[in-house]
Amino acid sequence: MAKRTPHQKTGITKHKVADGIYLLRFKTQYELTSTFLRVQEHYESPQFHGRIFTLEQYMDWYAAENGAFTYFQDWSGFNVPSTAFQPFYEGKFDPLTRKEKRLLALFRNLQGRFYVIGVHDGGKKGTLTHELAHALFFIDDAYRQAVREAMRGYDTSALEARLAKAGYARHVIPDEVQAYIVAPSGELGAASRALMPLRKKLRALFRQHAKGLSVPAR
Predict the structure, then answer these.
(1) Could you give the dihedral angle defined by the CA atoms of residues 98, 101, 106 and 108, in that order, rounded to the nearest 10 degrees?
(2) CA dist list (Å): 154 to 141, 144, 178, 193
């Protein structure tokens, strides 16, 4: 059984699915996206990675890039390493939103290296698999090494280009490539015939390393 800590007033349920891996399940996509936005984009946005920014600054940029601010409808899964929280705990993102404060409170006393993924009720089944692949890539050294070895000799440049166009910073693209190959989403991760053997290898590695995860039923 996964450790389950409900937060009824907020609609969030926190699960510890493995040492160093935590799953947050939200009731709605809006609550999920509006909670994670600045933490996630500080970690992986091509424009805001490593920067301190306001929600308004990000909204203006996203609307200019996409024709409208559709972030709350565009994304359904989130993944951040513990390092992404640090500037928020240090007060650099002052003022925090109410939802950011709530998120930070869930991990304030946690020590060491950990990874947080977020999904919402009603999301696609593959979204959770995709986010767990990210978590394993960060936490499980053996999984990360095996994935890198499996990917050698395969040309993933077309997928990398699509991911860059979709708005991922360069430093997270290797991780995104493996996660999208394991669990594609729409056009992202759609594998060419040449990459189908790699998909088979990576999914086998994922199943092998995910055996020890205590993933809760919906």
Answers:
(1) -170
(2) 21, 16, 12, 12
- What are all long-range contacts of 202-210, with beta carbons under 8 Å and residues at least 24 apart? 202/147, 202/150, 202/151, 202/178, 205/143, 205/146, 205/147, 205/150, 206/129, 206/132, 206/133, 206/136, 206/143, 206/182, 209/136, 209/140, 209/142, 209/143, 209/146, 210/132, 210/136
The per-residue pLDDT for range 113-134, each reduced to its tens digit, is 999 999 999 888 889 999 999 9
> Is there a contact between 77 and 130 (Cβ–Cβ < 8 Å)?
yes
Indicate the pTM of the whole model.
0.90
CA–CA distance, 67 with 69 (Å, rounded to integer): 7
Element (H, E) at 16: strand 12-18
